[in-house]
RNA sequence: GCCAAUGUGGCUCAGGGGUAGAGCAAUUCACUCGUAAUGAAUAGGUCGUGGGUUCGAUUCCCACCAUUGGCUCCA
């Protein structure tokens, strides 16, 4: 049996063992068991139980599973008719629903584990529980889950299980998990003084000097690159009157994700901040109701509309890095990955239909260059026309064909995922997904075609024949949210960012106070060359200075003593090792740093 | 929004019905010319917030807030 097949068979079988254990513990009449599929590192099973599963229960369930396996029970496959199946599971609502939803001609099979447990399943399974003797498993955690992933339906308790063919493999997985948790950007970001969160602004990062330095470098990089591709940056108001959101459609489709500032319907001005006017009433129906922008697009439309446009101007690319606010339901926030305030490397490009393909191609080229700079790999997803699409079907077909052609050229047919009918109602889209340290995927880049907004805002351009045409809008972001992207790269680099990006690039350690003068000279020379440098002039042991800079993961630490001062040299301590590179001429070191900045090099050289 | 867990000095965490403890960090002093944790002393906390139970709550109960892991939804 292939390893993959083996994994799927016995992980799946372990899910049944878990169900059997849970039923024996809680009593069959108290348990509704739903589904128990295998997943990447094990399996899970969904139940409704008489009470929540506690820490103590977890141990009990694990022990019961081991006990069941030791019974060496036979697993028996049985083909049954629909009515037999319904009879077997007559007290099980989820199984009954599953059976009723099976196609008419579907062969229904059930598996007996021992005489007292039966589950609806297409298999295949092991023949006897003793085949699981070597298997290593451990309950991972318990969480809530919705029946059939529908939040309007039953809330189930999902018990996750790690499951591997051997104890060593389980142990290796747990080690991996522990290491992954050490990459957590929430930990590293705090340790490196990058950012913080406070409940004075839930889900909104406070950027500290180091973190903001890096944030600025990302924007600088993005701006430089996009300038080469003829993008024009704009900026627009952070809060807009409700009338804008009514036109854009956000008030109808997105209002639950917006921070609203209700207008005043009656009352006088408050006279002081402490005792405000109690007669004042606020309502989102008031005309002066405002909302913080969750997206940049509507304002970009407003700027486009300022003047008439000729076909000769297209494509018009409006990029922007403005702050966006999106209100999240509680429980959705996650460090920098999911926040309520963020910036995107956003852009709205106005094109004619004929320009779509070339424009998207250029976008993909930019994306490629950016991701390559960070050494990130991503997965592309193509989402096509949904049922409630807007616009004419011919435009959709042409747009989708253009996107598909680009994707095929770029990634090769079949090397990207196609989500049929999953596009936005206003246009098809390409999303780029990147994994975090724990293997969770996050959408970063996105390229979306939009037929709707130009319509809502009645955008036009004058075509060659003098007729009024409606442009198509391309929304795109490559980093996506800069916050999310910084979270991703923090985990990717484990806080040891590339030289060009690190908050401080060079740290300087004068060995004793009498070397401060030379250190100052080195500092100024580095700053002159545009290199971000920090120096510790304090009167403490050099080891302490080095320790602090190492903890902050500065790429190069320069140690300066008599020898260096006399020869205008530096001694370089390279991040990631304790090797010292001695007798490097200062000018040579600076040239190297400038080169690393210019090339945005990923590797950190230890030769100068 | 739902299920569960967590919240103790700047950070990491221990403790537990009788008004709090460690390590790191900070401050002061000493040490300090060769590459990652020198020594001593000092200071710092109404134990997330608000109620309740109790003679007494940081500890038990309730609500709320925030965070984490999932579900759902998204950049």
- Beta content: 25-35%
Oligomer: single chain
Q: What gyration radius follows from the Cα positions, in whole Å?
A: 30 Å
* Uncertain parts: 268-277
Residue-averaged pLDDT, rounded?
A: 90
SSE map:
Layout: H1 3-26, E1 32-33, E2 38-39, E3 42-48, H2 55-70, E4 75-80, H3 82-88, H4 93-101, E5 108-113, E6 117-120, E7 136-146, E8 155-164, H5 167-182, H6 185-191, E9 195-196, E10 206-207, H7 209-228, E11 232-233, E12 239-241, H8 242-248, H9 250-253, E13 260-261, E14 263-266, E15 281-283, E16 290-292, H10 297-304, E17 316-320, E18 323-325, E19 341-351, H11 356-374, E20 379-383, H12 393-411, E21 417-419, E22 429-435, E23 441-450, H13 452-456, E24 461-462, E25 468-469, E26 472-481, H14 482-493, E27 506-510, H15 516-528, E28 533-535, H16 542-551, E29 556-560, H17 562-567, E30 569-574, E31 580-585, H18 586-599
Parallel strand pairs: 11-17, 20-21, 27-28, 27-29
Antiparallel strand pairs: 1-3, 2-3, 3-8, 4-5, 5-6, 7-8, 9-10, 12-16, 13-16, 14-15, 17-19, 18-19, 19-26, 20-22, 22-23, 23-26, 24-25, 29-30, 30-31
The protein binds one RNA strand of 75 nucleotides through strand 7, strand 8, helix 6, strand 23 and strand 26.
């Amino acid at each position: 049996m292939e390893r993959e097949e083996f994994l799927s068979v016995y992980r799946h079988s372990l899910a049944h063992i878990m169900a059997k254990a849970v039923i024996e513990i809680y009593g069959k009449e108290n348990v509704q068991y739903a589904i128990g599929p295998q997943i990447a590192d094990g399996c899970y099973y969904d139940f409704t139980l008489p009470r929540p599963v506690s820490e103590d229960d977890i141990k009990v369930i694990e022990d019961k599973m081991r006990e069941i396996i030791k019974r060496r029970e036979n697993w028996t496959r049985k083909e049954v008719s629909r009515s037999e199946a319904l009879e077997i599971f007559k007290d099980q609502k989820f199984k009954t629903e599953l059976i009723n939803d099976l196609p008419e001609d579907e062969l229904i099979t059930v598996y007996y584990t021992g005489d007292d447990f039966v589950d609806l399943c297409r298999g295949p399974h092991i023949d006897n529980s003793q085949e699981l003797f070597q298997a290593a498993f451990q309950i991972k955690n318990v969480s809530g889950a919705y029946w059939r992933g529908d939040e309007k339906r039953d809330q189930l308790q999902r018990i996750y299980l790690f499951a591997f063919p051997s104890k060593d493999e389980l142990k290796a997985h747990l080690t991996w998990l522990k290491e992954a948790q050490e990459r957590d950007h929430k930990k590293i970001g705090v340790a490196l003084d990058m950012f913080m969160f406070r409940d004075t602004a839930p889900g909104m990062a406070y950027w500290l000097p180091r973190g903001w330095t890096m944030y600025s470098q990302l924007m600088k990089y993005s701006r430089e690159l996009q300038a080469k591709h003829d993008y024009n940056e704009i900026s627009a108001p952070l809060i807009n009157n409700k009338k804008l959101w009514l036109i854009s459609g956000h008030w109808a489709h997105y209002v639950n994700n917006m921070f609203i500032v209700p207008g005043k319907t009656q009352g006088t001005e408050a006279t002081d901040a402490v005792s405000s006017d109690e007669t004042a009433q606020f309502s989102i129906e008031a005309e002066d109701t405002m909302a913080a922008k969750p997206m940049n697009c509507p304002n970009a439309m407003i700027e486009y509309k300022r003047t008439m446009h000729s076909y000769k101007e297209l494509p018009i690319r409006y990029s922007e890095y403005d702050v966006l606010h999106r209100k999240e339901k509680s429980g959705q926030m996650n460090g920098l990955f999911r926040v309520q305030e963020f910036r995107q490397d956003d852009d709205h490009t106005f094109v004619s239909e004929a320009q779509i393909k070339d424009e998207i191609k250029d976008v993909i080229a930019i994306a490629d260059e950016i991701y390559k700079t960070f050494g990130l790999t991503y997965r592309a997803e193509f989402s096509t026309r949904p049922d409630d699409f807007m616009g004419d079907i011919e435009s959709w077909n042409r747009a989708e064909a253009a996107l598909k052609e680009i994707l095929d050229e770029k990634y090769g047919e079949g090397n990207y995922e196609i989500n049929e009918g999953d596009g936005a109602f206003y246009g098809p889209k390409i999303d780029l997904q990147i994994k975090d340290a724990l293997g969770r995927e996050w959408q970063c880049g996105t390229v979306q075609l939009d037929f709707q907004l130009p319509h809502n805002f009645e955008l036009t351009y004058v075509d060659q024949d003098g007729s009024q045409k409606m442009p198509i809008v391309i929304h795109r972001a490559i980093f996506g949210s800069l916050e999310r992207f910084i979270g991703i790269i923090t985990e990717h680099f484990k806080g040891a960012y590339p030289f060009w990006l690190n908050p401080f690039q060079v740290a300087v350690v004068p060995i004793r106070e009498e070397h401060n003068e030379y250190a100052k000279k080195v500092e100024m020379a580095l700053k002159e060359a545009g290199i971000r440098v920090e120096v510790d002039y304090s009167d403490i042991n050099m080891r302490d200075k080095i320790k602090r800079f190492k903890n902050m993961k500065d790429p190069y630490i320069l140690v300066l003593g008599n020898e260096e001062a006399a020869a205008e040299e530096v001694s370089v301590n390279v991040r990631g090792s304790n090797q010292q590179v001695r007798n490097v001429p200062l000018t040579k070191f600076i040239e190297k740093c400038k080169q690393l900045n210019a090339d945005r090099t990923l590797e950190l050289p230890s030769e100068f």
